[in-house]
Amino acid sequence: MAPPATSLPMVPWRRRLPSLAGVAYVAILAIWTDGGREPGAWLVAPLAIALAIVAARRRSRVARAVGWGLAVVVASLGADRQSRALDACGALGLLVTTVGACFALAALPSEGGMVREEPTSPVTGVVVVMVAWWAAIVAGLAPDRRAVAWMVDYPSAWAELALATSAAVLVTFAERTLRRRSLELGLIERGGAIRSVMGILTIGAALLAVLGRAHPDAVARLALALVGVLMAVAALHPDAVQVARVARRAVLLAVLGGAAALVGASAAEGMSDAWRATVVTAAVALAIGASAAALDAPLRPAGGAWLDAFSRAADEAVRAEPDDAIREALLALRAPLGLSSPSPELWTFAPVLVATVDAAGYLHEREAELPDTLVFVAAAEPEATVRANVLDALEVRRPELRSLARWMTDRGAMLATVVACEGETEGVLVLPRGQRSEPPSLEEVRALKRLADRLAAACRARGTRARMLAQERDAAARAEAAQERIERMHHDRMLDVGRDALAASRLARPATVGVYSAASRMALEALERRTAIGAPLAVVAPSGVDPVPFLARAHLAGARGNRPLVLVDGTSAREHDLARWRDPRVSPLALADQGMLVLLDGAALPGDVQHLVARACTERRAPWERPGALDLQLALTSAADPDDLVTQGRLDPGLALRLGDARAAPIVLPRLRDRPEDLRAILTDRLAREGLRVLGRPAGIDHGGYARLAQYTFPGEDAELASIIQRLVQRCQNDVVSAADIDSLQLQSEDPDRRKDPLSA
Fold it and tell me: What pLDDT is stored for residue 471 in this prediction?
């Protein structure tokens, strides 16, 4: 298992000295080998020591190891003469560099996310490399004995075999690691950089060995050491995108600069004026270096088409108008896809809306459903971006991702990036795959995330506007519904008012006929005066006189005529239940609110009920919790004066006090005997109605019959009159009541001397 490539504390100088001393020893050995007479060893020695110092400052053990190995290899190549000791030192440096590169590849950093890191063990490759190089070292340093003659006789062959083995191990292990971890974000950049390094250094080493003056074995060793170091750098560097950019630039400069150098060298060799060729070559090299940024653009992922689209979209996403920013950004993202491919989608929340752009550049918006798991899965991924190829690869092992993978496949999506601002998710940007077959790179994902961050403000403004419009529509709908409910309630209220008025009119009908006498008019006008101002009423109705018609007619003519008229019969046992008076659903106090409450024979109610009514009317508060005040007009009827009832203990003093001035001057309803002017109209009306009810036609009365009834005193008042009318209708002949019919009833008048003109009203 490879050691982790995490950063370690800086190594103190006392621990760096042994490694620096080793490099210095090899450099001194190279100078000593040439006897100190060749300049190469003297020039290489400072370079090797500088490399060792730089390597010793690295925090990673692997980086320090491969740097030390490169410094040793460089120091071992400084001598012009052959030396087995220097070759062994160089072999040891290559061994350390190769082993360090294997450990670096095994410790490739992961960007995280739902793709689990696939560890690759470098043990097999390390063992093979160590065996090959130790064999080469033994073949170069072993004494000339017969037992190892097969090794000692061919030291160069063993060195070449070790070089080939190391190169094969590096290539094989790198490809295996990159293949096993291909789903991890950033491996595309690191893999491309590693392959580019190996390819360029291999080609460069071959050209130097064939066309140059350097020794092929030295070139091969230096190239292998550089490959190991650069592979370790590409694997250990924390930023894969920077690794890819540097690798692209290095490849471009190596190819174009190397070609220019070769052409310049060939031209200078065949020209008498070598300075001219050198100047031209230098100018070409400078031009290549200055235009490297433009020249390496085609080497970017997918030719840089997507990166350019992301850059243009990011520039457009900062427009002031949210719709313009979203439209232009989506239109820029559609450029690498082509007009035939589906449009990129921008999903915004609350409400969930998806925005697309057509080929003509028009923005379209519709409601849709976003998978619940998309935001959560994408937020946990590197750069808050979920990739379709990762979902496809994991749907077998991760059943919870299958629905999301199917959703991405159905839409032809390649990427989905969370659009967030200040920690709040504002939307999701979904990018279709189009005709692209290669997976997205980390550089593209980061560029897309930068675009998503710039779109966050537009998404927030657009979402806010959508919510405001939705709230406005909702408010308008609620207002319309409320207005409809108000109109319906008003209509229902009018129906209730109409029903109350109809019921009150039905109750008042007896008081609308035969109100001609002075006593009747005075009583009715007194009632109407008090109902007009909503004052309490105290009515004294002799036994048999029905006060309800008079009260109903006065109520209809009063200020509360369109409010309910509630009659409470004090003699009814049902009205004696105190719990019923406290129930807000059936209490007469609740039913009479805003209207008139009539206590018929109120003194017959129990004392606790009277006290409850008096307290509620005095405090204008119902005996239950309610927000508003209790407002009603109180009317009390009795057969005796209220003061007499209080004296007798039958009427609660508080209730009597609530009657106010009506208690001192109650309205006394006249008896039938006191209103003779009303008798004919009353008789005519009641006979006609009873006739219609019983005979199907109105009944009447002749003068003789009326004369008989006019002499009768009606001791039973209205109740006796109603009974007499019913009996007369059943006895009358030809629908006319005669004197004989009345005589048959054998009515006995209390005042036999009472006489009245039969024709009077």
Answer: 87
pLDDT of residue 761 exceeding 50, the answer is no
Cβ pair 745, 712 in contact under 8 A = no
- Name the CA dihedral angle for 293, 296, 301, 302, rounded to a multiple of 10 degrees: 110
Q: DSSP per residue over 201-257, as a string? A: HHHHHHHHHHHSSS-HHHHHHHHHHHHHHHHHHHHH-S-HHHHHHHHHHHHHHHHHH
In the predicted model, is pLDDT for residue 515 greater than 50?
yes
Residues in the chain: 761
Mean of all residue pLDDT scores within the chain: 84
In the CATH scheme, what is the code of domain 513-670? 3.40.50.300
Fold of 674-743: Helicase, Ruva Protein; domain 3 (1.10.8)
Q: Where in the chain is the domain with CATH 1.10.8.60?
A: 674-743
DSSP character at residue 604: G
List Cα–Cα distances, 460 to 313, 445, 454, in angstroms: 17, 22, 11
Portions of the chain given CATH number 3.40.50.300: 513-670
Q: How far apart are CA 526 and CA 558, in angstroms?
A: 12
Options 3.40.640.10, 2.60.300.12, 2.130.10.10, 3.30.450.40; CATH of 303-469? 3.30.450.40
Distance CA 743, CA 739 (A): 6
Asked whether 354 and 346 are in contact (CB, 8 A), the reply is yes
Cβ-in-10-Å burial (0-12, 13-18, 19+) of 437 comes to exposed
Cα distance between residue 508 and residue 476, in whole Å: 46
Amino acid making up residue 63: A
For the chain, residues classed under CATH 3.30.450.40 are: 303-469
Angle value at C-alpha 461, between 459 and 466, nearest 5 degrees: 90
Q: Which parts of 301-429 fold into alpha helices (H)?
A: 305-316, 322-334, 372-379, 388-394, 402-410
Q: What is the pLDDT of residues 570-625, one digit of tens each?
A: 999 999 999 999 999 899 999 999 899 999 999 999 999 999 999 999 999 989 88
Indicate the pLDDT class of residue 652, thresholds 50, 70 and 90: very high
